[in-house]
Inverse folding.
């Protein structure tokens, strides 16, 4: 049984953990205990969490499959990076960072709305294809840009920022992403969004403004992807378009799926683990062994997915899974909780993968008719 | 005589060559319990789909409280005051019972609150959430689902799911509530109970109710007036006693 106290605790656990981790590493960093590779890893992890949490809004809560998240990040990285290059001499490094974060996020959000428009009519596989194409188009536009504008195939060099502080800023952005996402989801607006996911026809008939909410989710999700892009450009000192291929979109999606659809804490953990794995493999396997990086990475992912899903492993999983561990803080079965005052903003987070990826090949016609003669059972 | 809530004039729709509904003229008066009956495939659900904006009628028009709503979208029509339930139940399955009703309350003027109020957790957000919850409980009480409020809606038995759909539709504060086979799949005891609930909703919420039903006992026990549809056209209109005993109607049912 989870009582009121635990329910509140559950709401804030991820902020507390992220904030605590940030503070610990900030102290370590400012007292000189961290190597630059550690700081780089922390930046990467914060960026990955921002991406995974923002994508989980679209995939987990709105229930639309997007394969173009790296595209929004790409827009943020290039536009934020360019803004930083221009503004840094004029404004100084802090204002330039802040303004470029806003610009990168805002422009990505605008594109999020533009991509959200087809999402109003297309769904499932078709939307996945549109978003995938979007990501690739964005990437190739920047790749073919002139040297003066966005650096073309040479990439765009971006300003340097104090590395002792940059990862802290990145983690503050993680907290902002979490706050916006969770506060939105745990509100009447979040309820409307999950209603659209659960049954769009019923949501419309209940007067929910489907257009508004779909575009809102796409805008917020791509806003934070854009922010992650700006942080990425600061983290690497350079933006290379090759980074934002669809592989990377898939990688973000894998984080969301591994974390459990619509499970934000799961997405955070998956993003951390996958990024850690990725960066560590790159450091361990150098020289001739570098060819093994992708192979081992892929193998580990396959093992993780099997571990997460194989029916045979169920009892083992239930005993040792991270989710079960988190589950101590996180309610599973709402029917167990009778104290509804405490759970007024708790969100149903269970959604099955096959619901999200459901093969709904039709370009959504306005309505699937209630079959005549079917009275259900 | 009380005013007319829903009026349709020559309302009709064809799908390709099939004329699913033709020349339908209805006049439903305020606080009336109006029945729409007819054999399978007669076009009853299609009428609902037209007046709730799922389909655009190919001929004719309809008015709610004198306002022409022909061709308007589903959301708009709901905001204007027509709510419905579905023949094939469509609940928000990953939500608890009370949340389903709270989605219905989403657009009520007293619960308006913009996205930023929620994101920044302003006091208004908490106030509204609490008020919505209280209101939802009242509505659940009417349909007898108050004790189920924290269960997932997909775990409810069939009859209760139908009642929850009614509660959700009622939460949108409609002028006209359209119920598509509300008693389907219910046992006689539940049906009896449902009749009481429908009457109580009409009396307490002053809402006009249009319902489709195959259970003739339900229809004649509840409705003031009915229209019998057959092959998309209206056969007879009148009180249940008169209309259901009309030879044309008996023929349609036996023949169909
Ligand atoms: N979208 C559509 N496309 C083609 N035909 C349709 C469509 N919707 C309904 N129809 C047809 O319209 C006719 C009326 O269907 P409708 O669902 O309104 O019947 P009904 O009176 O509700 O029957 P029941 O009692 O079985 O629910 C049927 O012949 C049906 O096949
Ligand atoms: Mg029907």
């Amino acid at each position: 049984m989870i009582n009121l106290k635990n329910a509140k605790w559950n709401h804030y656990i991820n902020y507390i953990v992220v904030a605590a981790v940030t503070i610990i590493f900030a102290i370590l960093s400012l007292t000189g205990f961290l190597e630059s590779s550690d700081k780089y890893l922390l930046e990467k992890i914060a960026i990955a969490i921002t991406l995974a949490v923002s994508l989980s809004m679209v995939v987990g809560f709105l229930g639309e499959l997007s394969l173009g998240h790296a595209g929004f990040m790409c827009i943020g990285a290039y536009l934020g990076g360019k803004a930083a290059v221009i503004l840094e001499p004029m404004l100084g490094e802090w204002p330039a960072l802040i303004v470029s974060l806003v610009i990168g996020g805002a422009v990505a959000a605008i594109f999020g709305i533009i991509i959200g428009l087809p999402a109003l009519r297309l769904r499932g596989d078709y939307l996945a294809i549109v978003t995938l194409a979007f990501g690739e188009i964005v990437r190739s536009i920047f790749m073919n840009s002139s040297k003066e504008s966005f650096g073309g195939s040479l990439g765009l060099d971006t300003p340097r920022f104090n590395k002792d502080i940059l990862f802290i800023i990145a983690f503050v952005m993680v907290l902002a992403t979490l706050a916006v996402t969770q506060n939105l989801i745990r509100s009447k607006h979040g309820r409307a969004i999950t209603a659209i996911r659960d049954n769009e026809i019923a949501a419309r008939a209940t007067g929910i403004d489907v257009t508004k909410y779909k575009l809102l989710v796409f805008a917020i999700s791509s806003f934070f992807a854009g922010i992650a892009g700006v942080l990425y450009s600061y983290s690497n000192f350079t933006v290379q378009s090759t980074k934002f291929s669809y592989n990377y979109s898939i990688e973000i999606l894998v984080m969301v799926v591994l974390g459990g659809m619509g499970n934000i804490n799961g997405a955070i953990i998956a993003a951390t683990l996958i990024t850690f794995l990725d960066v560590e493999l790159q450091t361990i396997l150098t020289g001739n062994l570098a060819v093994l990086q992708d192979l081992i990475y892929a193998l580990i992912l396959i093992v993780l997915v099997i571990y997460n899903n194989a029916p045979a492993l169920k009892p083992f999983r239930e005993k040792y899974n991270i989710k079960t561990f988190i589950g101590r803080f996180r309610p599973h079965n709402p029917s167990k909780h009778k104290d509804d005052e405490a759970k007024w903003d708790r969100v149903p987070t269970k959604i099955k993968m096959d619901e999200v990826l459901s093969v709904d090949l039709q370009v959504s016609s306005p309505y699937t008719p209630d079959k005549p003669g079917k009275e259900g059972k | 005589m009380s005013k007319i809530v829903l009026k349709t004039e020559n309302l009709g729709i064809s799908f390709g060559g099939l004329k699913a509904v033709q020349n339908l003229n209805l006049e439903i008066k305020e606080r009336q319990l109006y029945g729409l009956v007819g054999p399978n495939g007669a076009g009853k659900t299609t009428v609902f789909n037209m007046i709730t904006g799922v389909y655009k009628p190919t001929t004719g028009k309809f008015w709610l409280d004198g306002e022409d709503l022909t061709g308007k979208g589903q959301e708009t029509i709901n905001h204007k005051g027509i709510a419905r339930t579905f023949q094939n139940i469509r609940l928000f399955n990953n939500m608890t019972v009370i949340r389903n009703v709270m989605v219905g309350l989403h657009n009520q003027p007293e619960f308006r609150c913009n996205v930023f109020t929620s994101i920044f957790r302003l006091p208004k957000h908490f106030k509204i959430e609490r008020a919505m919850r209280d209101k939802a409980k009242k509505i659940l009480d009417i349909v007898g689902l108050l004790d189920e409020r924290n269960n997932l809606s997909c775990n409810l038995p069939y009859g209760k799911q139908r009642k929850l759909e009614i509660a959700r539709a009622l939460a949108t504060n409609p002028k006209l509530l359209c119920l598509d086979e509300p008693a389907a799949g219910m046992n006689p005891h539940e049906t009896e109970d449902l009749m009481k609930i429908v009457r109580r909703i009409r009396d307490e919420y002053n809402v006009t109710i249009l319902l489709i039903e195959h259970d003739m006992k339900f229809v004649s026990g509840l409705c003031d007036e009915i229209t019998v549809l057959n092959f998309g056209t209206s056969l007879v209109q009148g009180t249940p006693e008169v209309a259901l005993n009309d030879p044309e109607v008996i023929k349609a049912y036996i023949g169909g």
Notes: The beta strands of chain B are 4-15, 18-29, 33-37, 59-64, 67-68, 82-84, 176-180, 208-212, 225-230, 233-238. The domain at 1-81+174-256 of chain B is CATH 3.40.50.300 (Rossmann fold). Chain B touches chain A through 61 residues (CB under 8 Å).
